[in-house]
Amino acid sequence: MVESLQLRQALRVFLNKAEAAWFDVYGSSFNRKEIKVGGTEYIQLPLRYSSRAKIYAYFRKYWGITYSRMQLRSLKSIVHNGRVYVILGDPGQIPNFVESVRILSITSTRIRVRALLSGDPDGNVPIYYTIARTCCGYKIISRSGKRYDYRFTIG
């Protein structure tokens, strides 16, 4: 029981960091250099995210390959004079803060959880994750609720 509680707490911390990763990158651009390209305003990311490879590597700390690529594309970034810029503006509200975690199943390589996320104007939203256990920790390899989350849609 104690192990289960500790695992739930560790997963909650991990999922909150993972859900915040996209906003960490996007939000790091505030009060930085702005440019206008083709009528669209872009804002420069700081040096720690100065290349798409660095951004991708940051997402890979928490997310599997597919989800890291989706998030990278959803930033709609451009490279100008060797620096990465993202579209200027408010991305909008989505559920992204993990309030609670329930472990549904555990195997030697996978953990399946149901989490309640807050941040949606209509209330808490249940999201299901499949988390791979790796030699170095965890990676999210599946997540429900992609359809209504701009971080995971390309358009």
Provide structural commentary.
The structure is a single chain. With 155 residues, the chain is α+β, with helices and mostly antiparallel strands. It has a single domain (2-152), classed as Nuclear Transport Factor 2, Chain: A (Roll). Helix content is 29%, strand content 34%. It is built from 3 helices and 8 strands, in the order αββααββββββ. The strands form 2 sheets. A 4-stranded antiparallel beta sheet has the order 1-2-4-3, with no helix packed on it. The chain has a 4-stranded antiparallel beta sheet with strand order 5-6-7-8. The longest helix has 26 residues, at 2-27. The relative contact order is 0.17. The mean pLDDT is 93.
Q: Supply the number of structural domains.
A: 1
What is the residue-averaged pLDDT?
93
Sheet of most strands: 4 strands, antiparallel
**Sheet/helix structural class:** alpha+beta
Task: Specify the CATH class.
Answer: Alpha Beta
Q: Could you give the order of strands across the largest sheet?
A: 1-2-4-3
Radius of gyration from CA coordinates: 17 Å
Question: pLDDT under 50 segments (min length 5)?
Answer: none
The portion of residues assigned to helices is 25-40%
- What is the fold named in CATH at topology level? Nuclear Transport Factor 2, Chain: A
What is the overall number of helices? 3
How far apart the termini lie comes to 44 Å
Count of DSSP strands: 8
Helix-strand sequence: HEEHHEEEEEE
| Shape descriptor | globular
The second-level CATH architecture is: Roll
Strand content: 25-35%
